[in-house]
Automatic annotation (TrEMBL):
Classification of source organism: Bacteria, Bacillati, Actinomycetota, Actinomycetes, Kitasatosporales
Organism for this UniProt entry: Streptomyces variabilis
Biased composition (Basic residues): 1-12
Entry-linked SMART domains: YceI
Transmembrane segments: none
UniProt similarity note: Belongs to the UPF0312 family.
Residues covered by region (Disordered): 1-24
Protein name stated in the entry: Lipid/polyisoprenoid-binding YceI-like domain-containing protein
PANTHER family: PROTEIN YCEI
Residue ranges occupied by any Lipid/polyisoprenoid-binding YceI-like domain in the UniProt entry: 124-293
A UniProt-annotated Pfam family: CarboxypepD_reg
């Protein structure tokens, strides 16, 4: 949270807002504050507040509300746009003019429930490879990051009448790993890492869908890689269902993320630089950006 209002200046007592609480301000600054409440009118802690200058479009203040739903910031005089967001609720935007040496009365911002996205109809949905990506990020030599992806995979979603009983399965061709560097890719395919000769596939099968509110779900399941199976949870955002594509077929989309620990899957190759810095970090960020087509007798086969 921007804490400009809390900066104490011994030479100023500052303006006093409607509540009567002294509010010291830097010389020439103005103050913006708001109270964010949920649909039931209760204080909403953890809501994100972004204050953007209207002339330059630069973010002047950004932070989250405290446990009482309050946010405060000291700002130079000018016109600003204020955006307030919270998971599962509709964002609220307002414009405000800040004057020098003036603290505006706290604005009350009531967030309303977000429009619920319609869930996909029950049935079988197949991944559309040209519009689906399986990406990963790993730390390299303790500071940089290596970005990569898998280019060959198959998978689908079986949507049950009760969404919580739905299932996702993905099979990835381990040899299709690519990071844009041939030498590094060959090393990743070798016995030091994925050992694709003995373990050609990486498989994920979900066991449970857990609703987290709004458009958020957790997909619990089993990931098998390098001959080892582990339970993982994918933090998933459902992006909706539309008609469109090759033959205007029905399709849905979602974005899923998780963090994997290499040694959980016996990917424990180690190499150190001077001063003990690891060449490859212990964790890998995995992201699945998925589009799937509703499978019927008339659905076109997804292209390779």
């Amino acid at each position: 949270m921007a804490l400009g209002l809390l900066r104490r200046r011994r030479s100023r007592s500052g303006p006093t807002p409607a509540s009567g609480v002294p509010l010291p301000l830097p010389a020439g600054a103005g103050a913006y504050s708001c109270e964010v409440v949920d649909p039931m009118g209760q204080p909403l802690g953890g809501a994100e507040v972004t204050v953007t200058a209207r002339d330059s479009h630069r973010v002047a203040a950004h932070g989250t509300t405290d446990p009482y739903g309050l946010f405060m910031a000291a700002l130079p005089p000018g016109s600003y746009s204020v955006m307030v967001t919270a998971e599962g609720l509709t964002p609220a935007r307002s414009d405000v003019a800040i004057a020098a040496d003036t603290a505006l009365p706290p604005a009350r911002v009531a967030l309303l429930p977000a429009r619920q996205l319609e869930l996909p109809p029950p049935g079988t949905w197949l991944f559309d490879p040209p519009h689906t990506a399986i990406r990963f990020i790993a730390k390299h030599v303790g500071m940089a990051h290596v970005h990569g992806r898998f280019t060959r995979f198959t998978g689908g979603i079986r949507i049950a009448p009760d969404m919580r009983e739905s299932q996702v399965s993905v099979r990835i061709d381990a040899a299709s790993i690519t990071t844009g560097n041939r030498t590094r890719d060959n090393h990743l395919r070798s016995a030091d890492f994925l050992d694709v000769e003995h373990y050609p596939y990486i498989d994920f099968t979900s066991t449970r869908f857990v609703y987290q509110g709004g458009s958020k779900w957790t997909l619990n399941g089993t990931l098998t890689m390098h001959g080892t199976s582990r339970s993982v949870g994918l933090d998933t955002t459902y992006l909706g269902t539309v008609n469109g594509g090759y033959e205007q077929e029905l399709r849905c989309a979602a974005l899923a993320k998780t963090e994997l620990h290499r040694e959980d899957f016996t990917l424990n190759w180690r190499s150190m630089l001077a001063r003990g810095i690891a060449v490859v970090g212990p964790t890998v960020q995995l992201e699945l950006d998925v589009q799937a087509m509703y499978r019927t007798s008339e659905t076109p086969t997804p292209p390779e």
